[in-house]
Design goal:
The chain has 131 residues and is an all-alpha fold. The chain has one domain. The protein is built from eight helices and no strands. The two termini are 27 Å apart.
Length: 131
């Protein structure tokens, strides 16, 4: 059984990191090695993100509600005031938006052909509970 979070690791997380890398380089004027250190990836990965070689399996650029969350995450990182739980919460919110828009569905089906997309609505309807 394939879990949505397994799909997210291969498609959503790289898409978010690629968007953040692009923003940090283009908007904040940081060098690739600085971005690599901030994101915890290699300079080569940042280069691939900015050249659209990596992290663009899912297109998230125009998904409503994502850019403000990415901007908030970037601000936390650039300010150096990054609170891990706040950052992770923003990251998870982006993932939920992507899932609710059905952007991961084709990847789930491709990974596990037994999944019947017309019968699976987990990502589209799931509401996380907070404790």
């Amino acid at each position: 059984m394939i879990l949505p979070c397994e799909i997210a690791v291969k498609s959503v997380i790289p898409a978010i990191k690629a968007t953040m890398a692009k923003e940090l380089v283009e908007t904040h004027g940081l060098k690739q090695d600085q971005v690599a250190e901030i994101l915890g990836v290699s300079q080569s990965a940042v280069s691939k993100y900015t050249r659209h070689v990596r992290g663009h399996v899912i297109k998230i650029d125009n998904v409503e509600g994502i850019q403000p969350l990415i901007n908030s995450m970037i601000n936390l990182l650039v300010d150096g005031s990054s609170k891990r739980t706040e950052f992770l919460g923003l990251f998870c919110q982006i993932c939920i938006i992507i899932r609710k828009n059905g952007l991961m569905c084709p990847f789930c089906q491709k990974t596990d052909p037994k999944i019947k997309m017309e019968e699976c609505s987990f990502c589209l309807t799931y509401e996380p509970t907070s404790k």
